[in-house]
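Moderator note: this is an archived Q&A kept for reference. The question asked for a predicted structure of one protein chain; the sequence and the answer are reproduced below.
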Amino acid sequence: MEFSRDELSTRQRVARSILDHGPSTAAALADRLDLTPAAVRRHLDQLVDDGSVEAREPRILGARGRGRPAKVFALTTKGREGFDQAYDDLAVQALRFLAATGGDDALRAFAEQRVAFVEENFEASREAHPDLTPAQVLAQVFTDEGYAASVRDEPLQLCQQHCPVSHVAHEFPQLCEAETAAISRVLDRHVQRLATIAHGDGVCTTCIPPTPTPVSQSSTQKEQVTS
């Protein structure tokens, strides 16, 4: 079946909206893109058929209401490959070589260097956006680096709808670990990574507790528990 240029362009807009906003219902997509629900479902059906998108049951936070909640649509690995990726097979091969020659310490040093932008850019971004909360400033810092990040409330979460290194992080979790540690440091509290694109989730989600718990204190408490 052949599709017109306009149909392909609209389908790309649907996929891009899912990339930018995370797993979405057909109704949410129709509202964001100013399309009819029927048009969105037609494009979603085609994206599902070609393996770019998959339908999922939504995550329910708190009490579940009556009726069956609408399914959400999330990009698959194939769908994400349709967008620009900062790293490819060459990066994986390079990190494999680094692991073989330098070991875990070398991998962690590389991971920490790669996420140095978080701490380097946080203060400047906060000064440039004094009206934003620290979490929103952090989302802006990640967005500027291509993560399409946003903040959700209740509970407070940093959500990254796109990960430029997801293909590499799947094999090398040190990248995600360094990123989480950097988030903890700039917010001065212990955070918890709930989901990652690298491991098949639709969005990278980091839970930010409402009461600041200094990273150093959290580490001490963890050592006391494990000792």
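Archived answer notes: Strands lie at 53-56, 72-75, 149-152, 157-160, 192-195, 204-207.
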